Amino acid sequence: xxFIELRFFLFAAVVYGIYWLARGxxxxxxxxxxxxxxxxxxxxxxxxxxxxxxxxxxYLIARELDVAAAPRRRKLLLGLSxxxxxxxxxxxxxxxxxxxxxxxxxxxxxxHADVATLSIVLPVGIxxxxxxxxxxxxxxxxxxxxxxxxxxxxxxxVAFFPQLVAxxxxxxxxxxxxxxxxxxxxxxRWQPALLMFLxxxxxxxxxxxxLSPYVDAYFASPGDFDAVSSWLAAWLYCVQIYCDxxxxxxxxxxxxxxxxxxxxxNFRHPYLASSVGDFWRRWHVSLSMWLRDYVYxxxxxxxxxxxxxxxxxxVTMLLGGLWHGAAWTFVAWGAMHxxxxxxxxxxxxxxxxxQLPAGPRSAAGWAMTFYWVGxxxxxxxxxxxNTAWLALQSYAGLVSHGSMSLPAVLWLHLACLAALxxxxxxxxxxxxSARIPQPAFAAFYGASASACLALxxxxxxxxxxxxx
Length: 468
What we know:
Layout: H1 6-21, H2 25-41, H3 48-67, H4 71-108, H5 126-141, H6 151-159, H7 172-175, H8 190-220, H9 227-257, H10 276-280, H11 285-299, H12 306-324, H13 328-354, H14 358-381, H15 385-397, H16 409-426, H17 429-435, H18 438-455
């Protein structure tokens, strides 16, 4: 069930109507839990048992972590949670990848290997809710959070439908306290929330889905296109994946806001970043913070000298790349970002000593960051490393493998979208929307929604991050 489908709007009408008509907070939460399981079951009912199992395991382990005093027992309990969560994730997402990779490595050394793979479907959103339940148990283990006693509250934290299948990755410490008191209908900021949903819809349906055919055409056969098209395709994909993923996040955050709940902001105009580090403070913020708190800092962070800091950055980004998908292209994508973070750290230390002017330094940093991020996205999008290599040859070396070109008018589209990205960074449209009289807002909203439907393609594509 997509946020942009008619059946979702029918689903939402029923869910929101019953939720706001109900008075008791307990019934409201139970209703949202049932609705969230129905939402997830619309993808594939077979995996409802999997999310229920993940919920039950971490609910019970966290309860035991809270009362356990012996350090050894607490470590065993945490280890059990990590093993089960990563074991399930590894089975469904990575078993075939590692089996095939191991067989190819043995064949490279001259050994014959029969590959045993599993014919399994990747459950939608498994990476997101696994990270949520895992971080919850880690926080309880660290004594930073008390375990949740109410099983409905915890189950709703795991399965909350606005963010269930593609994030943002919620922290239990931020969401569970919101469940304790009933939400007030009078406190909902309806106009900003509705505008955020509309903006997310435009990003996904009107921009991302309309750019997709051009991006698909290039990456299906980059050897047929000229070098200029490689730049255009890379930057079109920058826009496509941003509008697709941030569009989902906007709609999810808006859906939660209309229920009275607050989710973390997941994007902060990432293509205005002046460094790769700045990019990761703006792109998929909930994942960046998760990797920082549960991978980078436990590895040692920047506490143990420069070489170990560089190692920690590389390891964190390699794991971040692998989290996105079971393919070497994702690992290479993570390596590119890890290498950039290492270089950026070394350069920043020297630039600070040299006292370079802030303006030119920021402008040069933005240009290099956008160019590097665009090249990395080619690895992310390519079907395999060979396709990625062809595309990167054209992108970095201006090598024209073929004579085909993407339509030149797409450059104008990119320029308009870049101007809009900068404008939305400067102007807080959500605060402005709150000041518009309700009749005027309703007229504007209706006209905008009609225009969106006219600009939307006939058939919608699944959100890109659903496969992660």
